[in-house]
Amino acid sequence: NAGVTQTPKFQVLKTGQSMTLQCAQDMNHNSMYWYRQDPGMGLRLIYYSASEGTTDKGEVPNGYNVSRLNKREFSLRLESAAPSQTSVYFCASSIRTANTEAFFGQGTRLTVV
Amino acid sequence: DQQVKQNSPSLSVQEGRISILNCDYTNSMFDYFLWYKKYPAEGPTFLISISSIKDKNEDGRFTVFLNKSAKHLSLHIVPSQPGDSAVYFCAATPYSGAGSYQLTFGKGTKLSVIP
After folding, report:
1. Between chains, do A97 and B100 touch, taking CB under 8 Å as contact?
2. d(CA A25, CA A90)
3. What digits encode the pLDDT tens for the residues B60-79?
């Protein structure tokens, strides 16, 4: 029972490099999300996709792009990584966007040097 | 401007006793509240939720209380077990309409249950 799967689990990037974080869910959920968690902070929403074919900005979208590839997959791209993007990234999914719990992946720990 | 506040970064409780984790919110549009539990190196897992039409919701050892007038909610764990040791996040969202897609999280409270 995989749930939400994120790859990679760890990554070190140099400033200016690009990379894509992958996320897939097997729960047939409509909505998917990318959050980041920084030390001493709660989780903050980067982007979300309410349904296949739509994406919208969350609280902290600058420096990121997303693609909802299909109903299962939602990727997060850093075009030119900056040290301020060092964080733990969580992908999540939910059956719908409103008043429902989200299920989270295990996270990707990203360090930008 | 922190809309969801968990003012206690950490809490230690003896095994078998009650753990009470507190959460305050400032946004009056919030009317659906959730608690998540997070172990190190894992993603958050949903624990329990409550909508503003209720003042209490119970699930086994976990009970969430909501005081709308005080904009305060609390999570009670009775009895506490060592396996409950984790970081607990409070989250809130409007039930519908603008912003209902987004969970706003507090900074978390690290609970340590001492055997």
Report:
1. yes
2. 13
3. 999 999 999 999 999 999 99
